[in-house]
Write a structure and sequence with these properties.
This protein is α/β, with parallel strands linked by helices. It has helices at 18-37, 59-65, 91-94, 120-137, 156-166, 199-219, 241-244, 262-269, 271-290, and strands at 78-83, 97-101, 104-107, 114-115, 118-119, 141-144, 170-177, 188-192, 234-237, 251-258. It starts with 17 loop residues before the first helix and ends with a helix. It binds zinc ion (ZN).
Length: 291
């Protein structure tokens, strides 16, 4: 296919050479065949010293012959990024009960935790926006479950609904934890063991979690959790509505660090760390959706 794209020769001043003319016609037919059916059995001959130098085909024609050269890896994919919690907390709104999956109900949304000088919802929002940008750079369509860090909602069931309605390829929920235990630090990843989509979806989600764990090790200095998951940094749960209610979309919930730990908090405040997390999560998403 590449030979075709560079060998169309204008038959200027060569009409008395029947062999050359035949070769040129064959080359032209080859190009038509390549465009029509994606290939040609006869490779175009390289131009000899006696022939005029081949003129490159136009850029648009080259693009038509070689579409993969410009396609980004996540083109055509839809990824839901869920910045956990919301900017405001209003008791009457946040405590109303909503479906949580597996027949249970739970409060619409909790207020989230906080570290000194940084609230969880603000970290989640900033981190989600960076991830959105990174995924879009790779061609993905990204849906955020909330559009600002100043309003109420949506409730946790609605966050899953965004992915279900869009038939999204992945959901990544961003949170940070708040644990007062001494020396408790590090990230962990929550996966659901009671997803609406069943055991296959749970398996895919766990695979995504493991890829994320490896990418975080490669790109960041945040350690695995010292207090959840017994060294695996994985936390299977059945009470997370945003994951439980997913019907076809593999999903995970990140707890990016412990905001009550000064080392973790320092990282989560750093722009460099946030950028590294965005790249790590996007790399894991890309591996999941392109392998
Ligand atoms: Zn949270």
């Amino acid at each position: 296919m590449t030979a075709v794209a560079t060998s169309v020769v204008a038959p200027r001043g060569r009409s008395r050479d029947p062999r050359g003319a035949g070769r040129r016609w064959r080359t032209a037919l080859c190009l038509v065949a390549a465009l029509a059916v994606g290939g040609c059995g006869v490779p175009a001959s390289p131009p000899s010293a006696a022939e005029p130098v081949a003129q490159p085909v136009s850029a648009s024609l080259t693009a038509a012959v070689r579409p993969s050269a410009t396609t980004k890896p996540l083109t055509g994919r839809t990824i839901v990024v869920d910045p956990g919690h919301n900017g405001k907390y209003r008791k009457s709104f946040n405590t109303k009960k909503v479906p949580a999956g597996n027949g249970r109900k739970k409060a619409c949304n909790s207020s989230g935790t906080a570290g000194k000088g940084l609230s969880e919802h603000a970290y989640n929002w900033a981190q989600a926006k960076l991830l959105k940008k990174e995924l879009e750079k790779r061609g993905a369509t990204v849906l955020l479950t909330r559009t600002n860090d100043s309003g109420l909602g949506p409730c946790v069931d609605k966050r899953a609904k965004v992915a279900n309605d869009a038939r999204a390829d992945l959901l990544i929920s961003i949170h940070a934890d708040g644990n007062y235990a001494k020396k408790a630090r590090g990230f962990h990843i929550i996966v659901s063991k009671t997803m609406a989509g069943g055991s296959e979806l749970e398996k895919k989600s766990k695979q995504l979690a493991k890829l994320v764990r490896a990418e975080l090790k490669e790109h960041t200095s945040m350690p695995r959790s010292t207090y959840i998951g017994r060294g695996t940094a994985l936390s299977p749960r059945s009470d997370i509505a945003t994951l439980n209610l997913l019907k076809r979309t593999p999903g995970i919930m990140m707890e990016m660090g412990n905001m009550r730990n000064s080392k973790d908090l320092k990282l989560m405040k750093s722009k460099a760390f946030r950028k590294q997390v965005a790249v790590a999560l996007a790399d894991a998403a890309e591996q999941t959706l392109t392998s």
